[in-house]
């Protein structure tokens, strides 16, 4: 750690101003202990960090869904659009959680390990739009469960309940999760009714409705 | 009439030789007691043409590189958002780059599928041999801009390489749709971003050469916030 900082400082000095020293670093105000204003507990912070990863994993899984339905031999542009948008939304959730931690004075250190250097996807092909929608519902339900897990950790941690974070997670995140789940569940029902008698035609029509935002 | 028959025969021969979509569909349709096309995949009926196969792997790698870069920029932005660094302008700069890479990754996936390819989610070559130490993204201002400049140059060169692969006219590796796409969507934007970041390094270098860079950094950060 120190060696790397020293190394980069050295590089700054040599590469940029031959001989003259470039003042890259500045005084850092350490406000962690006095006054003690950052009061988040480790277990709670760690579960938030894990949740950030989980949101990004969901984003990647949605990206794979979008990529599948965008294929020429699958040709479901409406599904692709919906899943690409869902991917960006999950990424936004991760960013919101990061912003929250920053607001509470966290993420001063260990930032580089916050996100894995590569996040893989579990599944890359789906039998049908219906299967993917059901998969999406599962994915959302898992995320919801994990958020509840974070709430539980931050409530029950040794020391005081982290009311503010718990309120933020229940008020904003769970609200969005439940609404999102209801939306997908509704889509699953509509699509399976479409397909009951009409099969491929049902999926075709449903896809075009998704594309034009009529669902 | 005879000429017509010869032409038709020739066309049919050409069609079967190239396994055309039409001939496959025709075969499938004329099968007795079977529904058309249900018993076989219509393989030539896809969106693949030209020399896309030469660059598909590179495009997939390029898309995966964008995803990784997007997360890296997000970490750099995060670092500037903490109360000790407290540089909203630098945070905005790196968040902007992160958003840009993310959306470009989605557009690349769409481009791959437009040309009949299949996106694969695999670690990009850029990660090979890179060992992640804990403070790679927790850098001082000028260091992080320098790092971003290097990252952008690498992306630009990767785009150049795809362009080169797709524009080998004499070797029969000609795919103008891809080379034009790379030019239009990446090449010019890369040049602008690289120039901008290089300019920032120049400014930061002169600002930090003075007796006290911290005030200069504050003002530069304020400038970045307004960009």
Automatic annotation (TrEMBL), chain A:
One of its GO terms (biological process) is iron ion transport. It is an enzyme of class 1 (oxidoreductase). Residues 1-19 form the signal peptide. CDD domains: Euk_Ferritin (cd01056). Residues 38-195 form the Ferritin-like diiron domain. It catalyses: 4 Fe(2+) + O2 + 4 H(+) = 4 Fe(3+) + 2 H2O. One of its GO terms (molecular function) is ferric iron binding. Keywords: Disulfide bond, Golgi apparatus, Iron, Iron storage, Metal-binding, Oxidoreductase, Secreted, Signal. One of its GO terms (cellular component) is Golgi apparatus. Its main location: Golgi. SUPFAM superfamilies: Ferritin-like. Its EC number is 1.16.3.1. InterPro entries: Ferritin (IPR001519), Ferritin-like (IPR012347), Ferritin-like_diiron (IPR009040), Ferritin-like_SF (IPR009078), Ferritin_DPS_dom (IPR008331). It is found in: Golgi apparatus; Secreted. Fe cation binds at residues 55, 90, 93, 140, 177. Belongs to the ferritin family. PANTHER family: FERRITIN (PTHR11431). Oligomer of 12 light (L) chains and 12 heavy (H) chains; L and H chains are disulfide-linked. The functional molecule forms a roughly spherical shell with a diameter of 12 nm and contains a central cavity into which the insoluble ferric iron core is deposited. Stores iron in a soluble, non-toxic, readily available form. Important for iron homeostasis. Iron is taken up in the ferrous form and deposited as ferric hydroxides after oxidation. This is Ferritin. It comes from Tribolium castaneum (Red flour beetle).
TrEMBL record, chain B:
Gene3D superfamilies: 1.20.1260.10. Fe cation binds at residue 152. GO terms for molecular function: ferric iron binding; ferrous iron binding. One of its GO terms (biological process) is intracellular iron ion homeostasis. Residues 49-208 form the Ferritin-like diiron domain. Keywords: Iron, Iron storage, Metal-binding, Signal. PROSITE patterns: FERRITIN_LIKE. One of its GO terms (cellular component) is cytoplasm. Residues 1-17 form the signal peptide. Stores iron in a soluble, non-toxic, readily available form. Important for iron homeostasis. Iron is taken up in the ferrous form and deposited as ferric hydroxides after oxidation. Belongs to the ferritin family. This is Ferritin. It comes from Tribolium castaneum.
């Amino acid at each position: 750690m120190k060696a790397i900082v020293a190394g980069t400082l050295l590089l700054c000095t040599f590469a940029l101003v031959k001989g003259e020293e470039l003042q890259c670093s500045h005084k850092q105000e350490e406000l962690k202990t006095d006054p003690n204003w950052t009061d988040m507990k480790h277990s709670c912070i760690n579960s938030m960090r894990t949740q950030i990863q989980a949101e990004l994993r969901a984003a990647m899984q949605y990206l794979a869904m979008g990529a599948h339905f965008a294929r020429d031999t699958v040709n479901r542009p409406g599904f692709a659009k919906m899943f690409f948008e869902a991917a960006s939304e999950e990424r936004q959730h991760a960013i919101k959680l990061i912003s929250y931690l920053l607001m509470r004075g966290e993420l001063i250190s260990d930032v580089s390990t916050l996100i894995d250097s590569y996040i893989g996807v579990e599944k890359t092909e789906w039998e049908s739009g219906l299967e993917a929608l059901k998969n999406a519902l599962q994915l959302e339900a898992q995320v919801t469960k994990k958020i509840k897990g974070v709430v539980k950790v931050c409530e029950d941690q040794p020391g005081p309940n982290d009311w503010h974070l718990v309120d933020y997670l229940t008020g904003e995140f769970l609200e969005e999760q439940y609404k999102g789940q209801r939306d997908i569940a509704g889509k699953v029902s509509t699509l399976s009714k479409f397909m009951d008698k009409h099969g491929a035609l049902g999926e075709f029509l449903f896809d075009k409705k998704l594309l034009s935002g009529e669902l | 009439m005879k000429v017509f028959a010869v032409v038709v025969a020739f066309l049919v021969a050409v069609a079967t030789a190239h396994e055309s979509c039409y001939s496959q569909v025709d075969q499938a349709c004329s099968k007795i007691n079977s529904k058309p096309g249900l018993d076989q995949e219509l393989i030539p009926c896809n969106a693949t043409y030209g020399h896309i196969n030469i660059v598909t792997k590179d495009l997939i790698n390029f898309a995966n590189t964008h995803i990784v870069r997007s997360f890296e920029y997000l970490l750099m932005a995060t670092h500037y958002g903490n109360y000790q660094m407290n540089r909203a302008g630098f945070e905005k700069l790196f968040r902007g780059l992160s958003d840009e890479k993310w959306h470009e990754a989605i557009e690349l996936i769409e481009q791959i599928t437009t040309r009949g390819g299949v996106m694969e989610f695999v670690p990009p070559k850029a990660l090979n041999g890179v060992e992640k130490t804990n403070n790679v993204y927790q850098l001082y201002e000028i260091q992080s801009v320098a790092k971003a400049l290097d990252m952008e140059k690498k992306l630009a060169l990767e785009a150049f390489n795809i362009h080169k692969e797709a524009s080998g006219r004499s070797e029969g590796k000609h795919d103008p749709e891809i080379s034009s796409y790379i030019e239009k969507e990446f090449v010019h934007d890369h040049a602008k971003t690289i120039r901008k970041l290089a300019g920032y390094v120049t400014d930061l270098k002169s600002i930090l050469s003075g007796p006290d860079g911290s005030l200069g950094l504050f003002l530069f950060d304020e400038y970045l916030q307004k960009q």
